[in-house]
Amino acid sequence: PVSELGIGAEVVELHAHACGCATRLLARSAQGLFCMWDVRSSSLTAVVDAGHSALSRFGATLSVCWLSPDKFRMASGHERGDVLVWTAPPAGSRLGAGGPPALASCTRVVACDATPVRQLLPLTAGCVLALGGGPTEEPMERLTAVHLPADRVMGGLERSDSGDSDGSRPSRLSGDSGSAGPPPLPPQRLPWLGEVRSLAPVTPRGEASPSSVLQLLDEGHVALQQLPGSSP
């Protein structure tokens, strides 16, 4: 039942991810909350609910996705234009024992006032394709390859918008004492092809990462767009 997922509302997005012997579900509600559910133990392992400070800082969660094939890392897109990365409690943890997911990093498509991030599509463990998150004055929603910084356990949730005006630097959170590695590449915005309804990655045979993205556009049009840095 939906009530057992721990978010007490209609589930509008659901993803499964297997790592080792564990399988977890990532569920998002219509109210912008999300949780992680362990399938094997039928238990809730982590939840970001209305009382979580991240939601008051960054707004409701509008999209979620798993990131790493070898661990339980996930990303969330928010109504104020932020992309957050979370690390889940260890496999087998129950809510209260493993604790809530830890906020590892925060990135923005642009440093100015931004539109909501409505969809996220994982490309690699360190990069997601985001729909939205652009300047509020921009009339159309564009796709952007967002390169994520190295994970750090964040000491606070206060956002600093001191990055470049074009969003070429990720925002930093209070408690972040410095980078754990080289800075990520700046966001790479894709040309606008039309109003996006849904996305699907296209991965060549024998490759680990997608080289292009298939887009269902408004009025039933379909477009195939090459991703930055990939070969045709």
UniProtKB/TrEMBL annotation:
It comes from the Eukaryota. Residues 170-180 have a biased composition (Low complexity). Residues 158-169 have a biased composition (Basic and acidic residues). Residues 150-212 are annotated as: Disordered. This is Uncharacterized protein. It comes from Chlamydomonas euryale.
